[in-house]
Amino acid sequence: MTRNISPSAVLGTQRTRRFYEDLTFQVLVGMVLGIAVGALAPDIGQTLKPLGDVFIRLIQMVVGLIIFCTVTHGIASVRDLGKVGRIAIKAIVYFEVVTSIALVIGLVTINVLKPGVGMNIDPALLRTAGEAAHPASHMSMGEFMLNLVPESAIGAFARGEILQILVFSVLFACGLASMGDKAQPVLNMVDTVSQSLFWVIRLAMKLAPIAAFGAIAFTVAKFGLKSLVPLAALVGEFYLTCAIFFLIALAPVAWYAGFSLLKLMRYIREELILVIGTNSGESVFPQLIGKLKRLGIEESVVGLVLPTGYSFNHDGTCLYFAAVAVFLAQATGTALGWEQQLSLLGVLLVTSKGGAGVAGSAIAVLAMTLAATKSIPVGSIALILGVHRILASAFVFTNITGNCVATLVVGKWENAIDRRQLESELDAGYREV
């Protein structure tokens, strides 16, 4: 049974943390020091690029296995496929439609505002060691379909072929699901491996201040202080993009489902505040389960839609992927026409499903997405390491709100909501029992 954790207790722990222990503060300090070193000692600054590259390598090292574990456990854990199939199909349809809208909004906004244009950074200078220069590739549909299936599952993991890993993961998960209770030991092992990999991600994130220091120092030393202006523009553009998504996507959906988006956000405000500080949706998962049930949504809907949403419904992360990927293309002068961007959108629709609620996983999936494009250098991620935490606060906030909205929408479709209780709770606001 999931243990309910008092949000106020968690928030209290966050408030007592010393300011210098906060990772966001540490990253900001790393950025400031990096700017100083890059501006005052450019010769030294240019030698610090490997600090950012090592951080990226640490993330890339485990992302394939994380996606395998997340997808496998999420699908195979649904045992009675006949009983929950209807809810699952409705949830997945909703997830696909809304995340597609998010990707389109992200692509349109970044193309209109163009915060990365003018940086004129040579992509060859940002390629990590061993990363070859790849021209933009144009596959036929037949070649694309053939490339989805790996010749060897182990080879797909070794090469970091994200689409092949996903295909293998789905097939493996369906095989486990067909075995019923016999698959439980394997699921337990997959869950254990997943938690171990997330520990590696959390450890890598502790190195983010050092990585940000090295990346910013190199950027300023190589390209001058003027290179920082587009990063500030990216932050402003992304927060505007999230606001647009709330206005033209989530608010109308909430109206359709018969509830106020603002009242829902007030109801889960403690969780939203917490994820701004932690950049991790996992930190509020138990509390959200309890609050959504208290809103009058049937347990079967909450128990399936919310956990599935954590793996497959990343509205804010999709906005992030679209914005940052195109920003890096703009910054490095990589030509991305609308055909290539639509292809990128297709890749993002798949790779975004491998994201998790753990801080740092978005960078991991972004790295794999850029590798799949074979045009935007993976090493260019170093350019945005310093502002990633600021961007993450917005996209995790959006993810959490989006998943709560999704649970209410599917509950409406299933006629599985006590409307009187929902209205009473939202009007009164959440109160500790």
UniProtKB/TrEMBL annotation:
Lineage runs: Bacteria, Pseudomonadati, Pseudomonadota, Gammaproteobacteria, Enterobacterales
Instruction: Identify the InterPro entries for this entry.
Output: Na-dicarboxylate_symporter (IPR001991), Na:dicarbo_symporter_sf (IPR036458)
- Any one cellular-component term (Gene Ontology): plasma membrane
Its protein name is Aerobic C4-dicarboxylate transport protein
Q: How does it sit in the membrane?
A: Multi-pass membrane protein
Please give the biological process terms from Gene Ontology that the record holds. Answer: L-aspartate transmembrane transport
Give the residue spans that cross the bilayer. 23-42, 54-75, 87-110, 153-176, 197-218, 238-259, 344-366, 378-397
Keyword list (alphabetical) reads: Cell membrane, Membrane, Symport, Transmembrane, Transmembrane helix, Transport
Pfam families linked to this entry: SDF
GO molecular function list? fumarate transmembrane transporter activity; malate:proton symporter activity; succinate transmembrane transporter activity
Q: Which organism is it from?
A: Sodalis ligni
Q: Where in the cell is it found?
A: Cell membrane
